[in-house]
What does this fold into?
Amino acid sequence: MVTPTTPSTPSPPSTPSTPSPSPTPPTPPTPPTLSEAELLRLAGSVPDPELPVLTLEELGVLRAVHVGSAGSVEVELTPTYTGCPAVEAMSSDIERVLREHGVREISVHTVLTPAWSTDDISPEGRRKLRESGIAPPRATRAPAPAPVPLTLGPTRTITGAPDTEPLRCPRCGSADTELLSRFSSTACKALRRCLSCREPFDHFKEL
Amino acid sequence: MTATTAPLAALALGDDALVLSHRLGEWAGHAPVLEEEVALANIALDLLGQARVLLSMAGDEDELAYLREERAFRNLQLVEQPNGDFAHTIARQLYFSTYQRLLYGQLAAGKTRFAGLAAKAVKEVAYHQDHAEQWTLRLGDGTDESHQRMDRACAALWRFTGEMFQPVDGLDGVDREELRTAWEESVGQVLGRATLTVPEGPRTGAWTAGAGRQGVHTEPFGRMLAEMQHLHRSHPGASW
It folds into this structure.
């Protein structure tokens, strides 16, 4: 879906509300002389609306920035989950940041292919997640995009399943954790509890 | 892909996702435990995201969702069935998520216009299927009461499952026979592990229910649509 978001009340960068100390007549806004790499860096510096400790670049959702012939800028964004409600907020935040840097014509497109994976989260992003109490996703790109089995406890005749790579508590580092719910505060997280320090924590699910 | 038939396929898949999303959303405020409420709402959100992409392939997503009459919807009758007790919801999830994962798996490997979305969504649906399987095991292999209820739910919804393997106009590159075999194997295996029996009785043929893909729906669907469409029809263009 194309999301050509246009904020209803954008303040034009050419008319700052604070009086300018310079007596020179107002100059036209800086033309978008920024390179695609610089624009990509700017757009990538926008914090994720739901996990503000991460930037969009660290989350790996920013795919490309193209500068058109008339100086218009086109941004390609991919959602983490198809139904991720943060995409619209991301789009308008990107628009705002680029507008502040003199880009006047911006369109943000949502692209689905290739599908985003938690492997796209940068090492720095993973470190920040762990620091903010969220267990980062484990690598998935090894064999197939199958979900990591999140098995509940035993039933009358089932005696639990063998564990895969252990998931560590982001607070105390213990590998002794249990799943409380495979869906948590957002679609991308599961809720777990550490059996050592007893704290519940979110786990960014492998996708 | 042809211009005339592809929108029908987009409607069929989009309506499946939209209608099931709405049904799961009805659990908000009513689920047995808070974690489960959050889980069902998250699954509903994934499905809504898929529905938006698919319906946008066929036209204006809001018009299609809010302004069509019942007979214009192309979803399976399975997904419009009421939530019932929790076991009914889980049985519906097991049947549908297994179907959707297998179908999207095939579409993701193909070259139709659905390949991109399917590749994205199949990873989400894998979690939906895992959720349904875990609950099927929990309920089927749980207490006598939960076993009975899960058994009843699986049997009650069985007659709606044959429709999943009927041809869909414009949905090219799907091997329906392979889909059916894989579905039966997967669902049968889960039911077996859950100490439940695979329901008997006609799933296809004269006794089967299901013509949702032709726009024929069951009675509860009209009431669901009335609720889903009421706000938009009463206040056109309303926004938050």
